[in-house]
Each structure stands twice: as C-alpha cells, then as structure tokens.
Amino acid sequence: MAITIEFPKEYGYVVMVLVSYAFLNMWMSLQVGSARKKYRVPYPNLYASEERNKDANLFNCVQRGHQNSLEFMPLFFALLLVSGMQYPLIVSGLGTLYIIGRFFYFKGYSSGIPDKRIKAGLMSFLSLFGLMICTALFGVTLVIKETN
Fold it and tell me: Which residue ranges does UniProt annotate as crossing the membrane (predicted)?
C-alpha cells in the first residue's frame, strides 16, 4: 500500500533550516580540525590529555562544543522535520533561533571558558523546547483526526 504525503507549501523553509544547520556543523568540524593542528592533538584522540598537552583544555573546549552539537543534532532534525509538517513557519523560526544559539554556544565554549556557552545554550534549549511542543501538538492533531 502506497502512502502519499502532502507537504505544506512553506515546508521548503524547514528544509532550508535543516541545510543551514548542516553548514554550521561543517563549519564547527573545520574549527575542530584547525584546533587539532594548533594545539597538536593527533588523530585518533578525541580529546587532549592534560598530562601530555598544556593546551588540552583549549582544544577540549572546541571539541566539546562540536560534540555537544552532534549529540543534539538527531533530536533537532527529527523535531524540525516532523513538526514542520504542521507548523512550517513557526518551526522554521524556532529552528533558526536554535541554529543561532548553537553558533554562539560553540563560540562561547571554544573560547576556552566553558561558562561562556550558557546564555547561548539557553536560547538553543528554549528553541528546542518550542520544537518539542510543536511536535507534540502535531501528534495530538493526528490522533484527533483519527478518532473523528
């Protein structure tokens, strides 16, 4: 049995937000690569050892900022793509705020002072929470349609 999915006409904005995050992720990867060279952290080491590298904290902050973004990426993508089916403009706005927050989260973290990530992290988490609400509302809408 074939299933037909109709996308709202504004769904392209949702896709553009997803692609924007992919570009941000690529940029963060390049920043980690540059930090790896600058602080002399060879592959395959994910993090620098403080016993062997005086700049371990600086590198580890860059790496951790990117790693944290990777950890949240599947959740962000799933919430964005699913809730965008019902609320494409709201979700595109929340997704854009999430990306801006992630950028400043990474910049703050990679400064070597992890506490500089907190304000931007709050913006990202609030945006993510908004996406969760939109996704839940979309789910409720689908359940109500099925029962009527």
Answer: 12-30, 75-100, 120-144
